[in-house]
Amino acid sequence: MPLILSQRINFDSNYQDIPFKVYHYPKKYRNKIKSGDIFIYHQGDKKNPTNRFYYGYGVVGQISSMDGENYFAEIIGGTPFPYKVPLKYETSQYYENFGDGYNERKKPDWQNAIRFISHDAFNLIIEAAHVSDIQSLYDISNIESISEPLMLISKLNKIYSNYNFEMRNKIVSEHLDRGTSVTNALKKILGPNCQICGEPGFEKKDGTRYIEAHHLIQLSQKKLASLCSDNIILLCSNCHKEIHHGKHFSHSADETKLYIELGTKRVSIQKNTIDNLKKLEQCQALVPS
Ligand SMILES: [Zn+2]
Ligand SMILES: [Zn+2]
Q1: 82: CA distance to ligand 2 center in Å?
Q2: Based on the domain organization, do 87 and 154 belong to the same domain?
Q3: Same domain assignment for residues 104 and 59
Q4: Residue ranges with CB less than 5 Å from ion ligand 2
Q5: How far is the CA of 71 from the centre of ligand 2 (A)?
Q6: Which numbered ligand comes closest to the C-alpha of 199?
């Protein structure tokens, strides 16, 4: 459910916030706010009614606390509204009172700096603020809470197949993926072995295996869909180095398979498409443990 985050922007506060970057809040709100929540910023002012408005939006990123008293939420894609929005819709009803289960309320609970609002209310405020591209934030909201790897890859593939790289750079790249979400999910499904030579990566201090991701179409080319799982193969560091620096590397593909020649090695492997990964998961489920 979307949130309202109260944050003063045009006068001093005791909180160590950086508007649109970091949100600082006390322990009592710790269960109200979670990574992936989409929110609207609100400024309250007890004395001056003309100083109350909604002024921006974003998605809650990583949350941390050093002392268990003060919490800090990283803000993803924090963006000021083109227009500030007053608290009331057409000067009569509060925006925050729109939507299921909220109609009965007389007033929003202003005393809570962090509070839930309905999707209806959220959309009305966004509309009144003349924000045009909210879809990208909806797409990434809650993605970090998906723990099932195939579901995560499937959702990320959907986002990445339509994402124009400039847009992705702006909102998604540094925060959501850093290229690692798809890779980590792939590792969970494919296991720790190199997809070319079959060797497992070396064992790391934490007991997991080291394995690298290679993008067949290089990310620097900024081609559509190059972040999707079917453009990624998992490699041991030797094969990965050889791909980038070796004398002989070539690859071709059909609908479902990749054909790779690397040095003296020739392999054909399943592409990491959702369909292939699904089949792989089903096979693994059949193997008695
Ligand atoms: Zn290898
Ligand atoms: Zn590479």
Answers
A1: 40
A2: no
A3: yes
A4: 214
A5: 37
A6: 1
Closest residue by Cα to residue 241 from 266, 272, 270, 263: 263
Same domain, 197 and 176: yes
Whether 13 and 120 map to the same domain: the answer is yes
* Least distant ligand from the CA of 193: 1
CA 44 to ligand 1 centroid distance, Å: 58
Q: How confident is the model at residue 41 (pLDDT cuts 50, 70, 90)?
A: very high
- Domain range spanning residue 76? 3-138
> Helices 180-190 and 149-162, interaxial angle, to 10°?
140
Q: How far apart are the C-alpha atoms of 15 and 70, rounded to whole Å?
A: 10
Q: Do 206 and 255 belong together in one domain? A: yes
Distance from the alpha carbon of residue 237 to the mean position of ligand 1, in angstroms = 7
- Cα–Cα distance, 224 to 8 (Å, whole number): 39
For residues 132 and 150, state if they share a domain: no
Residue 203: which residues within 8 A CB-CB, separation 6 or more?
Answer: 209, 210
Cα–ligand 1 centroid distance for 79 (angstroms): 43
pLDDT in tens, 219-235: 777 777 788 899 999 99
**Tokens standing for 217?**
């179409």
CA of 234 to the centre of ligand 1 (A): 9
37 C-beta neighbours (distance < 10 Å), count: 22
For residue range 253-265, what is the model confidence (pLDDT) as tens digits?
A: 999 999 999 999 9
Same domain membership, residue 229 and residue 279 = yes
Work out how many domains the chain is built from and give that number: 2
Distance 220 CA to ligand 2 centre (A): 11
Distance 178 CA to ligand 1 centre (A): 23
